[in-house]
Structures are given as C-alpha cells and as structure tokens.
C-alpha cells in the first residue's frame, strides 16, 4: 500500500459494519476506526486527518455534537455524517451543525467513495458544491464533476443558469424569470433557450427539463 494515502477517521460503533467499512475504505485511505464518540472527538481534535466519517448515533458523544464542537474550535476537516435517519429534518440538522455531507444507511460503497471525493475537493479550493443526482456542481470554481467524464468547466453565464435551477430543484422558472435572474436586460428569451442548449450539450440532455408552456426546471434531482 502507498504510504501517502489520505488519513480517514471512521467513527462507527456497529461491531459488524465498522470493521467492514474500515476494510473497504482501506483500499484508498489510511483508516482509523473508533467505536465511541468521545474517542472520535479526541482523535479528530488532533487535526491529523484528511476526512472524517462520523456515525450520527454514537455512545458518549453523538455525531452531530462532534461536528458542532469541531467547527466551533476551528477544525474544518471535511466531514460526512452517516445516519439511519433519513428525514429532511435530520439531514438538515447534520448539515447545519457543519457537516459537509450526509449519507443514509444502508448505502452503496461506491457512493460513499464518491461523496468522500466530493467533500475533499470542496475543502481543497473548489468551494462548496451542490449535488445534482450523481453530479457535483461547484459554482465558485464553475466546475461540474460528471459521473462519466470527470471535470467539466462552465462559462460564467452557464454557471449562473445552472446555479439558479440547482438551488431551486423543484421550481419551474419562466423564461422571463430566468432572464431577470441571470441575463442582461438587453437580452431576449431566445438567450435562455440557447444557454439551456449549451448546458445540455456540455453535461447531459436531461440536466434541464422543458416544462411545456411554462419554462424550465432542473431535470436531475438528488
């Protein structure tokens, strides 16, 4: 194994899942497995890890509290929370605590690896990301990571259009609303159609959906 693997702290108290996860993650990371929240907090505070995977329900100190304490102390290590609680409220609670992402059990290991890559990219200069299905969109760096072709760079206008749709994934925007939010006052509704075409060509034909008679909305929703 290469010695320069990124270091990952895994806090998981399930006696079967924890060792299994550690074994799989060891393919890429140098993994430290701890089964207790207090131990996890002490280890994470040393600041020697490149990523943290923290189960939400841990003995001694729960996962959300661990993240809150770390963030208050200035520790910004990329952190993913594992949870069996799949409600929107529970996910928001973890993200508001300062976690970079969450993953609901049971999960697929390919998705776990992908999400770890994403939060580590976000911590290395790409900026925060918005998940669009299997895609990762980084508005600050105008980058989209495709599940097929790697990194795709957008223009400033393409980025603004995708950001508008991605941050309101269930809303249909009329052409006039998109013109006001994204384009110059001198542009016409045809500009909206042109840039939707550009996004579809660069990313995926389904990335933006046409809602007949109404406008456009995000086509791929997480």
From TrEMBL:
The modification 4-aspartylphosphate is found at residue 55. Keywords: DNA-binding, Phosphoprotein, Transcription, Transcription regulation, Two-component regulatory system. It is found in: Cytoplasm. Residues 127-220 bind DNA. Its main location: cytoplasm. It holds the Pfam family Response_reg. InterPro entries: CheY-like_superfamily, OmpR/PhoB-type_DNA-bd, Sig_transdc_resp-reg_C-effctor, Sig_transdc_resp-reg_receiver, WalR-like, WH-like_DNA-bd_sf. Residues 127-220 form the OmpR/PhoB-type domain. It comes from the Bacteria. Residues 7-120 form the Response regulatory domain. This is Response regulator transcription factor.
